[in-house]
Amino acid sequence: MKMTVDFEECLKDSPRFRAALEEVEGDVAELELKLDKLVKLCIAMIDTGKAFCVANKQFMNGIRDLAQYSSNDAVVETSLTKFSDSLQEMINFHTILFDQTQRSIKAQLQNFVKEDLRKFKDAKKQFEKVSEEKENALVKNAQVQRNKQHEVEEATNILTATRKCFRHIALDYVLQINVLQSKRRSEILKSMLSFMYAHLAFFHQGYDLFSELGPYMKDLGAQLDRLVVDAAKEKREMEQKHSTIQQKDFSSDDSKLEYNVDAANGIVMEGYLFKRASNAFKTWNRRWFSIQNNQLVYQKKFKDNPTVVVEDLRLCTVKHCEDIERRFCFEVVSPTKSCMLQADSEKLRQAWIKAVQTSIATAYREKGDESEKLDKKSSPSTGSLDSGSESKEKLLKGESALQRVQCIPGNASCCDCGQADPRWASINLGITLCIECSGIHRSLGVHFSKVRSLTLDTWEPELLKLMCELGNDVINRVYEAKVEKMGIKKPQPGQRQEKEAYIKAKYVERKFVDKYSISSSPPEQEKKIVSRGCEEKRLSPVRASVPSSVKSNDSGIQQCSDDGRESLPSTVSASSLYEPEGERQDSSVFLDSKHLNPGLQLYRASYEKNLPKMAEALAHGADVNWANSEENKATPLIQAVLGGSLVTCEFLLQNGANVNQRDVQGRGPLHHATVLGHTGQVCLFLKRGANQHATDEEGKDPLSIAVEAANADIVTLLRLARMNEEMRESEGLYGQPGDETYQDIFRDFSQMASNNPEKLNRFQQDSQKF
C-alpha cells in the first residue's frame, strides 16, 4: 500500500504526523529487509544457474566425445552432433537469462537500496536531529524566568530560529518520503517485469529452437523404429550362431577438455583503477576500467557511457612509473596523450600491464592489415596550437603531409627497420617510422623522440618544412655511422624485441655514432678562432637581418635573405647534404666541425642554417642551450634568429631549446627577432611560450622595441598575444591556447612565414630604403 504524509500535518508537528512518520519508517525498514533478502536469493539463484550451465556444458562435451567415437556410424555421429549443438544453444540461452536476471533484479534493486533508501535515511537523521533541537528550545523557552528580559529574548530568538529550521527540514523529509513511496512501486515492478520478460524470451528461444529440431527428431524416431526391428532380427540371428556381444565403455577424458576463457562481451580484463586527472590539480579518481575491442575504457557509474582512454591499443605503450610518490602506478602512453593509472597491489599492476601488452600483441596479429583504415579518421595534435574547425583549416594535413615527407630520400621506408610506407614520424629527429617503431620511440620519452602521425595529426607549416630538411638518410649517416663496422644488422619488420634493443642503443645510448675526438688545440687558440670566426657576424641588428646577397654554406644549401626560406641549387643532389667532412668544402669563416666541441658546432651550424650539421652536433652530446661566453653568452637559438631561419629555430625548440634564455644584455630570442624584424620568428616564439614581458639591460621589452621600429606586424602579434594572455588569466583559463580569433591570426602569420615570407619583409625592405 502506498503511504504518504501530508505537508500540512508536517507544519503542525501533530501526533498524527508523528504516528504517520513512525508507520512509514517501519514500512521502509521492512522494505529494505525484503529487498536485501530478494537480492541475496537472486545472487544464489544466478550462482546455481551458472553451476548448472557448467555441468550442462560438460555433459554436452561428453556427447560430442561420444559422437567423435562413433565416427564410423553416420547416423549416430550426425544425430549426436546435432543434439550437442542444440544443447550448446540452450546453454547460451541460459547464460543470457542469468545475465539479464543479474541486471534486472540484482543490479537494479541494489541500486535502489543504495541510492534511494540511503537518501531516506540521511533525511531521517537530519529530521531527528532538528526535532531534538526544537524540543530543547521549547524546554529552555518555558523555563526562562519572566524578570530576566535578556534571557527571555535569547530564548525566544532561539526558539524562532529552531522552528524555522525544523519546518524546512521536516518538509524536505516529507518530500523524500512521498517520493520514495511513489518510486518504490515502479522500481520493483520494473525489475520484476524485466525479469519475467527475460524468462519469456528464454522460453521463446527454446521453443523456436526445438520447433526447428522437431522434424529432424520425428524422422530420427522413424529411423529408430526400423533400427529396433533390425536390431531384434540381428539378435536372433546372432543367438542362433551362438555369438556373444561385448559391450564397450563410453567415457570421456575430462583432462582434455578445452575451456573458452574469452568473455562473450569481448572484455579481456576489467577492474577498478585510480586515474590521475589531467587538470592542474592532478587529482586521483577511482574508475572502473576495462580492455575491450582493442580499446582501454573506463566508467564512473554503471549507467555511464564508457570513456575511451586509448582508441587503438596498437598505437600505445605501457610502462612502470616509479618516480612518483604513489605505489603500484603505471602509465599508458598514446600518440596524443598519456594516462597515469594506479592499481591496488603490485600483483594487479603486473596483471594490467601484461593484459595491455597482450592486447597490443594480439591487435598487431589480428588487425595488422586494418591500419590503413585509420587514415580516414582525424585526431587533434597535442603539439599544435591550432584546434579550430575544419572550415578554417589552413595547415597541411593528411595525405599531403605524407606525400611531401615521403619524397625526401630514405623516407619511403622506416628509418629503423626498413618497413615500406611508414605513416609516423619523429619530429625532433626528422625521420619517418612504421607503426611498431613509433610505439617504441614513444616509450623512450619525449626528450629523445617526439612522435606524430603523418595522416592523423595536423601539421604546422614550419614543422613540415623541418621534416623536409632532414630525412632518414641524413639522420642514419649520423646515428648509424658505425653499424657496418661493428657488424650489427638492423632489425627486420616484426622483430619487436630486437627493434626495442636496437632503437634504445641507437638513440638513447648512441652506440653507433662515430665519436670523433675533441680538438687538442689549446683553449686560448680555440677562443681566438672563435672570436675571429664570429667577428663578421657582429653587425647592427637591422643590417644583419637584410644581407645583400645570398650565401651558400658548406653543406651546399643556398640560404636566402627572407625569413625562413631555404632552397637547394639545381646542381646539388639530395645525397650531398651529408657528405663526409673530408670531402666537403670548408667555409671561409668556420673551422671543420671535428675541431669544435659539440656545443660550439651546434652554435655555428645554427647561424649557418645547416640542419644536418646541427643534428650531428646533438648526436655527439651538444647542449641545445649552450652559451658562448665569447659572444655575450648567446645561445644556438639566438644564432638561429640572427641567421634568419624559421626552420632552424623550430628544430632547436623541438629538441628542448629554452625560448626564454637570454644573453648578457638581457635579450632573449624574442628580443632579437623583434629587433631584426623577423615576424615569422616572433610568431613562432610567442606560440612556444616566450615571455614578452622580459626587459633587456636598457629596460625595453619586445613590444616597446617594435613600437619604436614602427613594425606594425610584430606590434600586432605582441599586443594580440598580451591581450589573449590577460583574458585567459582573468577567466582562469590557464594552459588554454586562446580564442578562435587569436588562433586564426597566428595561423595566418605562420602560413605566410613558411610559404610566403616575402609578404612579411615589408619592414626590412622599407628600412633598406633609408
In a few lines, what is going on in this structure?
With about 775 residues, the chain is an alpha+beta fold.
Walk me through this protein's architecture.
The structure is a single chain. A hairpin with a 6-residue loop joins strand 14 and strand 15. With 770 residues, the protein is an alpha+beta fold. 30% of the residues are buried. Helix 3 runs antiparallel to helix 4 (149-240) and helix 18 (669-676) runs antiparallel to helix 19. Residues 243-261, 368-398, 517-593 and 766-770 have low confidence and may be disordered. The protein has 4 domains: 7-238, Up-down Bundle (Substrate Binding Domain Of Dnak, Chain:A, Domain 2); 267-366, Pleckstrin-homology domain (PH domain)/Phosphotyrosine-binding domain (PTB) (PH-domain like), CATH 2.30.29; 397-508, Arf GTPase activating protein (Annexin V, domain 1, Orthogonal Bundle); 526-569 and 588-769, Alpha Horseshoe (Serine Threonine Protein Phosphatase 5, Tetratricopeptide repeat). The strands form 4 sheets. Strands 4-3-2-1-7-6-5 form a 7-stranded antiparallel beta sheet, with helices on both faces. The chain has a 3-stranded antiparallel beta sheet with strand order 10-9-11. Helix content is 54%, strand content 8%.
Ends apart, CA distance between termini: 98 Å
Measured on Cα atoms, how large is the radius of gyration? Answer: 39 Å
Oligomer: single chain
Query: Care to count the β-strands?
Result: 15
CATH-defined superfamily of the largest domain: Arfaptin homology (AH) domain/BAR domain
- Count of helices? 23
> What structural category arises from helix and sheet content?
alpha+beta
Average pLDDT, rounded to a whole number, is: 76
Strand portion: 5-15%
Shape: flat
Region (Disordered): 367-392, 538-588
Function: GTPase-activating protein for the ADP ribosylation factor family. GTPase-activating protein (GAP) for ADP ribosylation factor 6 (ARF6). Doesn't show GAP activity for RAB35.
Domain PH: 266-361
Biased composition (Low complexity): 379-388
